[in-house]
Amino acid sequence: MANSAKWDQRSDQELIRHCTHGNATDATRAFEVLYKRHKAYVIRVALRFVRDHDTALDVLQETFSYLLRKFPPSGDGLTLTAQMTTFLYPVAKNTAITLMRKANRFPAAEGGCEPDDLPQDTAPESGDIAGALAVLSDAHREVILLRFVDGMSLQEAADALAIPVGTVKSRLHLAIRQLRESPHCKKLLFP
Amino acid sequence: MKPEKDRSDDLPQPLIEALESSDRPVSMITARVDREVSAMARRHFSLRRRPARAQRLAWTAVAAAVVVAVFAVQLQSPDPEQTSLYTDVDGSGRIDIADVLALARMQGTEERSQAELDAFASWIVSLARAGETS
Amino acid sequence: MRNVILSLIVLCCACAWQTSAAQHDDRKRFAAVDIYLDSGEPVAAWQFEFSSRNGRMKIVGLENGESKAFGGTPYYDREAVQRGTADRIIVADFTLAGANELPSGRIRIATLHLMLTGADAPQFDLELVTAVTHEGRTIDASISLESQIVRKR
Q1: Which helix (H) or strand (E) holds C28?
Q2: Extents of the domains making up chain C
Q3: ipTM value > 0.85
Q4: Do B122 and C93 touch (CB under 8 A)?
């Protein structure tokens, strides 16, 4: 499956244009290429918020269902002004949180659920990166992952999180300082 | 899409590598979702406004011509191996990845879908297939 | 009777030695083998076959190479590798990228992750099946390997 979309040389912007303006066949094919190109990313994001694979697959389907509804006849179409991942990230994240709530595995807190409320995946272990990340709040961990794993710029991370760039900068700064001071990271850097 | 190099806040490279490996994509079987998303997309886009009557007639004529052409070709080459997708497309005398490339580069009515090309390439590297032919 | 007991002791010693030797031979090591293609012309498709001459090798994983034109993992028999039964492998890839984006010279096209058993030094067979230009013309290229890491378990 990883090979399926790679030979299609069209950019995400071109594919989005085909989905918006193309005939049924072109639009379907363009959408399938977009799906194959980004599904691994959506699963990865989903697994940051949900713990079981079945729910991650539901997140994948719901995320692309949401994207599909943006295109005519139900939607007006989409103009991609940033990276596709910047668009997909909040959709996948919110879908994951909603599905967790629906499954009663993640009861909603009063006033809504914030990333900080999310459950910890694993118990921290000395000298591993999971342990190092566990010292961070979820909001800080999220910004670290967007920046250093997803490779987003500050502006892209701000767009994905719908927060100002300044907030991303300060979260990142604090998160990095915490990580550097964490004994887990010291063990990773100087085993 | 990599972070720009002029960032003031940075992490040591070993930490970035550890982060990347901790968030590595997991291997998941997505066949069910693949099928459902594909069907969903087909249903969604098929609801778009249908083309004008003249255009529909033209497409019907083209489709009829293609059906007749395919039927004629099948009559001329009754050997199923000859009509199979998995053939020596480039005429090199053997079937290998160059045939997939040749097939992918074919234009016009012979344009192949991604799934067909993937299936052909996967068939080429299949050890069971190689065992049969070697 | 004494002879029978002596024979039994000798037999037990032989069995113990054989078991110890077998355990020694069953040591598992992991190796990463980089596969390099050397071509004077830009390559649009390639295929190679890799196997072990003396057995005792299983392919446990595969990584894509360094060329951006060939993004993603190459084609290989995933099922056989996942089953852990692949003692040889056929790997291939193609790209429809433009001629000016295609790689040439010496490039790493894949990295194979192997599990080796036994004390013998591994002997590999590597054969370049084909390498072609974007027009489909066969290239006179060569293929080589470099063993990267070997860890003992």
Answers
A1: strand C28-39
A2: 28-152
A3: no
A4: no
